Amino acid sequence: MSIYDFKVNNIDGKEIELSQYKGKVLIVVNTATKCGFAPQLEDLQKLYIKYKDKGLEILGFPSNQFENQEPGSNDDIKNVCSINYGVTFNMFEKSEVRGKETSPLFKYLTSEKPFRGFNLNDPEQKFFNAFLEEKYPHYLLDDSIKWNFTKFLIDRDGKIIGRFESPVDPLSMESYIEALL
């Protein structure tokens, strides 16, 4: 099994085979426009603009599973991403990214790159870990997505190279992206 075996619907409802991204470097990310991490959409867009001509694609999957931070329709999400954050990278339909109804794609991603904990030497990650320990301690007990903006970096051959948790700024992934391009 590889990421190229999956089919997903884009934000307009059209079925997309991920095999069309063979040979590209991918960032797959779950998003939410009302999340405190939503400004990462701007940084993801910066990376997309800078590297799309070299083979980077970003695939955004909205999810409303964390404190109702993505309640709108796919059309609402598309408009907010475009107008408020300038997003031109590929967005897909709302997805379940944890729990019983987790989409097959996110089951695959989290099984291939399980949660390895937060870097507690990083103040933002330490703070976020404490937030989860207090409010959602059960989230820390498995390998699933912990919150919005978990980012998976995938090489040109479809191998998942890294998992970057929610507090990690996408721009800090730039050296990893450049190495893969």
Protein described:
The structure is a single chain. By secondary structure, this protein is an alpha/beta fold. The protein has a single domain, classed as Glutaredoxin (3-Layer(aba) Sandwich), CATH 3.40.30.10. The chain has a five-stranded mixed sheet. A hairpin with a 5-residue loop joins strand 1 and strand 2. The longest helix is centred in the last third of the chain and has 13 residues. It is globular, with a radius of gyration of 15 Å. The model has no long low-confidence stretch (mean pLDDT 96).
Beta percentage is 15-25%
Rg, rounded, reads 15 Å
CATH topology: Glutaredoxin
Poorly predicted tracts of residues: none
Q: Count of helical segments?
A: 5
Helix and strand content put the structural class at alpha/beta
β-strand number:
7
**N-to-C terminal Cα separation, in Å?**
23 Å
Number of domains: 1
Taken from the alpha-carbon principal axes, the silhouette is: globular
What kind of sheet is the major sheet?
A: 5 strands, mixed
What does the average pLDDT come to? Answer: 96
Keywords: Oxidoreductase, Peroxidase
Domain Thioredoxin: 1-181
Family: Belongs to the glutathione peroxidase family.
Protein name: Glutathione peroxidase
